[in-house]
Amino acid sequence: MSSDFETYEQDFGTVTAELTNKIGRIPKLAGEEKTQLVLNVDKQLEEVRELLEQMDLEVREIPIPSRGMYNSRLKSYKQEVEKLEKDFKRSRIAYSDEVRNELLGDDVGSSENQLIKLREERAHLLDNTERLERSSRRLEAGYQIAVETEQVGQEILSNLHTDREKIQRARERLRETDANLGKSSRILTGMLRRIIQNRVLVFVLGAFILLTIILAIYFNLRAH
Questions:
Q1: Phi/psi class of residue 206: alpha, beta or left (left: φ > 0; alpha: ψ in -120 to 50)?
Q2: C-alpha–C-alpha distance, residues 135 and 170, integer Å
């Protein structure tokens, strides 16, 4: 499982390096060329999110003792993607000096008005971006809690399954012990019965011998 995670890591590194380069180029472009690059970056960001989901699934399959290290790496990758998304949002509304001059033209008054308008729109967009990022962080925190809760639940179920097996084995041993005790009880009862029978037989035999001796003495004395 860890080999698959490392493969996703390599793909993640390649794609994020390309994204960093492209995001840095966006403010230097305008018009259709900028639009196409923005669409391309947006598509690659979606690929990066899918890679994170695949890595998250791989981490869940890793044994619990080794899972902590991979969770830390995955967390750092998520933070890196958050930074890329933030830079991307800012780059979409940012312009280099060369592009800004080209858009504003030579009309000073019009340029100042457009510049003010652009700054206001940029501030508004940045404010919305910050709100979206806060919501995204809350969702991410909720998702992390859900994942940790699932892991704890799996551990509890595993422990319950182990305890159940122990209880079943204990019950089986109790049944075997009960069976052995029952067998021993029957054997002891039979032995006790035979002992009583032997004692009765000895008593009867002793009485018979004593009676014979008494009769022999009686008849011997009577004969004299």
A1: alpha
A2: 52
